[in-house]
Amino acid sequence: MQLLALSGSLRAASSNTALLRAAAGLAPAAVPIILYDRLGELPHFSPDLQDDLPPAAVSLRAAVARADGLLISCPEYAHGVPGSFKNALDWLVGGPEFLNKPDQRGGIAHAATAERNRGRGADRERPGRVRRHPGGAGQIHRGNRSWPAMIA
Which of 31, 42, 82, 96 makes the best surface tag, with the fewest CB within 10 Å? Predict the structure, then answer.
């Protein structure tokens, strides 16, 4: 199994990217985590380019297709995701690579918010997606398959 790590931040000193690098360093050898570091190369999304994808969009789709699951760490900007990360998602929705892909999302801000809201019902699991366990460990579930996950 191989996971693809996507950081929603383009900052060189991003704490979200550092979190993903740490996860890759701690992952068992049987579950390599590959950091996708070409998000900044994607051109602005245009549906007019769906028939002739730019090379950066082809690269992103191929990386997602090769992965068995996604590990996403993304900062929050203005109650949403950064524009560069939204742009990457826009390039993915036109193809089949992203559909039904197991994922674990979080980030530095997400972890702090989850800790503040613990016990208030705001951090409840979404059925069939991610099951959280004490200590930040968890499992990603899709159908009859499951993978260990680190909850950021």
Answer: 96
